[in-house]
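Annex B. Sample input.
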Amino acid sequence: MDGTAVAVRAVESVGTDTIALTLETPAAFDAEPGQFVQLAGTVDGEEITRHYTLSSPDTDETFEVTVEVDPEGTLSPYLAGLEPGETVEVAGPFGDSYYEAEENVVLLAGGPGVGPAVGIGERAQREDATVTVVYEDADPAHEQRLTDLAVGGATVVITDDVSSEEVLEVLADAGGQTFIYGFADFLDRATAALDAANVDADDAKTENFGPAPDSE
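Annex B, continued. Sample output.
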């Protein structure tokens, strides 16, 4: 798929083996937090493409994606090594699991799913929506942005078990539009947690990142 070459503005570490990649917004690019783009780079003479979900609350002038860097991977180490001013190919946006000005949002994130969670949370908070974030990860990323969301009034739960009693109580009390972002196994666990909390998982907006890297 043809893309547009855009300049890198910043590459920032936001956790263990996790970066936030900030790119210049191409002309006529209109995306909402929660949608995803295709990034392409040439590694060892071969063009490699991967999909990454937006982690910025808007796309004014720049936008951001969060990348979990697999040291044994192909594109993610390449992206982590980019310098400001270098370019990367961008195509999209794609996807329909994004924020649409809902008044109450419940965001369940596993691993790199924290990227769209913080982006949607910030946008929703900006629009005076009620925000709940449940983030499953033993080694969290984007901790400062999660803290800022909590300071702004969001309910933020960081856990190593999305099915814990604490999480189930939060989900049962939250209400609103549910979003789920993460690898396939997390989506299964998150859906089971919603069922256990008597929340209709069929109404959730979900994005499946595919199998976790260590399960391939």
